[in-house]
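Bench log, entry 3. Co-assembly request; chain sequences pasted below exactly as received.
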Amino acid sequence: MIWDVRNECMSVDEREAIQVKRLRAMIGRVKATVPFYHRVLADIDPADIESLDDLPRLPFTTKEDLRQNYPYGMFAVPMEDVVRIHASSGTTGKPTVVGYTRADIALWADMIARSLCQADAIPGDILHNAYGYGMFTGGLGLHYGGERLGVAVLPMSGGNTKRQIMMAQDFGSTLLSCTPSYALRLAEVAEEMGVDITSLPLRSGIFGAEPWTEAMRTEIEQRVGLKAYNIYGLSEVTGPGVSNECEYQNGSHINDDHFIPEVIDPDTGEVLPDGEEGELVFTCVTKECLPLIRYRTSDMCSITHDLCPCGRTTPRMSLVTGRTDDMLIIRGINVYPSQIEQVLLSFEEVEPHYLIEVDRKGTLDQLTVQVEISPDFFADRVGELEDLNRGIRGEIESVLGLSIEVQLMEPKSITRGEGKVQRVVDKRQTD
Amino acid sequence: MNAVQQTSVFLENKSGRLAEVTQIIAEAGINLIALSIAETSDFGILRFICDQPDKAAQVLREAGFSVGETEVLAVQVPHQPGGLAEVVGLIKPLGINIEYLYAFAGRTGQQAVVVLRPENGRNQEVAGVLQQAGYVLLTPEQAYDF
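Structure output for the full assembly:
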């Protein structure tokens, strides 16, 4: 089923006319309401935008711009119009903050209703929503989208996996939404419990919030016994529902009537043609609270405007293949090495020489921080070092919202790279 | 109060580290009197008494090790059954925990030395009780020649 035939299947020309009209209106609005855009768009007149080819004339917006305007400086509406705030990891101790008006929430729910329909959902389905509820957009995003479509939503959130299996069994869940690695975790725990998860009525999985591959898709489809669809999004653009795969699983349809995509060369900023891999950039032409212009996602992928047999005319993006920055995604949570570094700098017992190691133990990602203790640090008792280890671990865990391990290392034991220091070793299988 | 200086070295749990430390000490002409290792699954702490503690700390720091220096008590006890039991029995009523201890026998074999570290560096109180009971606390020189 297609949720919104009118807007998902319109002709390319008709869509561009709508996009340009919306883009012009948006430029006028943000110039008037957001001091940052008033400054960087000083030379841009909305009337100058005649077609989407004019989009590259506009400046980029970056995560750094959001940081400099922390927390609400980029909001284009007064606080009395804001009904929701979410946050994701920032590159420092401060998160990236996003806001929504009532209309923004409605738009987001509508986008996810599109996504769920692409994943074969229909009213009458039971959505087992195991994305985390909270400041993270996954849980509440799918929740509101499910209600908008009219499926019965189980707000499971993450964790307590055995109980999740029991409920999926007893409640007859037909749709599963979570990170791809958590889908495998569910399969693993079901196997341990002696439950045949493939025999449950689960039919479709809506998986995202972390990078995955075709090989993982095959494994999930076999072990969980459902069809696995990619959902893509980021909180700065709206959250999940920016794009989603249809039954052909040949790229995620981008809802470009609201989020206009471009793929650029991350070094030069030049726009790349269809099929070429580069950094994904979005302009959010309809959002009220946080309408960002040419926002750089740091996600690497390619897009195509070739028509899909499903009937939708929206462009499609490939699975995300990497990042332009050093962000890691651990169990669906975004982690920047700089967040960890900041914590380490606050402990005088250790040196700012560290290595972040990511590994997948079974199906769960594990992050270990190896850090050198200071040559001047006095320790003759094991307890003292264990306290230090616990202290560092606790601080990092509270900053990241993720459980981790810390390993204290001897001074000078972590390899000093020549030139760019390698801070991260990712041992997870990516294929 | 007599106390001796103990050197402690942080060691990652990987093969060859102890060999490296002992090699450095040997090359510096330092004589080890007693040592102990405390270990966890991730790391260990080597603690030792030697004849030139300042030099030991210096050469190990130069080699990049994290080194600590602690004053510990070296108590002379008869080398016979119950020797240690009596010492810790005297400390017990003080309500002071012993962080760690290790022991070595003297050259003659008649006497042993118990090296101990009271919690929170409460050496003075423990030394007082032991001395009152007639125990000898060794000076650094006595310990090195023991």
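The interface with chain B takes residues 373-383, 385-386, 389, 407-413 of chain A (CB under 8 Å). The mean pLDDT of chain A is 94.
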